[in-house]
Amino acid sequence: MHKQIYVNMPVKDLARSKAFFEAVGYKFNPQFTNDKGAGMELGENLYAMLLSEEFARTFTPKAFPDAKTATTGWVCLSCESREEVDALVAKARAAGGNIPGEAQDHGFMYGHGFEDLDGHHWELVHMSGMPPQA
């Protein structure tokens, strides 16, 4: 069905957001990056488009809620290991991100997350098996 995903996220300060995500370990595709937006590579065919709020407003007439006080959705990314989950959360914390909760271990799934500088929630999970049968 779908071959790629682009998650569009409005940000207040594009340069500051790029620096944050670079500190966490992500790279930006220069072909999709300028002073209005930045194409962040999350994995093969997985992208987050960080868009200045001014530019993002050209795509929708709706208001952008303050992601620090409202949740309209969040990004969940799979990781190769529990250690990768913890390492990315630690990098986000060191780069100025907020850690809103503790890691959660559900046996088959381990997760933890962070909020970026604009308050967007990023959840990181490692799946080591399947959930128990209901």
Quick structural gist:
The protein is of the alpha/beta class and 134 residues long. It is built from 3 helices and 8 strands; from the N terminus they run βαβββαβαβββ. The chain has a single domain (5-127), classed as 2,3-Dihydroxybiphenyl 1,2-Dioxygenase, domain 1 (Roll), CATH 3.10.180.
Protein model, in words:
The chain is built from three helices and eight strands; from the N terminus they run βαβββαβαβββ. It has 134 residues and is of the alpha/beta class. It has one domain: 2,3-Dihydroxybiphenyl 1,2-Dioxygenase, domain 1, CATH 3.10.180.10. The mean pLDDT is 95.
Largest sheet: 4 strands, mixed
Q: What is the CATH first-level class name?
A: Alpha Beta
Per CATH, the superfamily is 2,3-Dihydroxybiphenyl 1,2-Dioxygenase, domain 1
Rg to the nearest angstrom? 15 Å
Question: Beta-strand percentage?
Answer: 35-45%
Number of strands: 8
Q: Please identify, by name, the CATH architecture.
A: Roll
Sum up the overall morphology in one term: globular
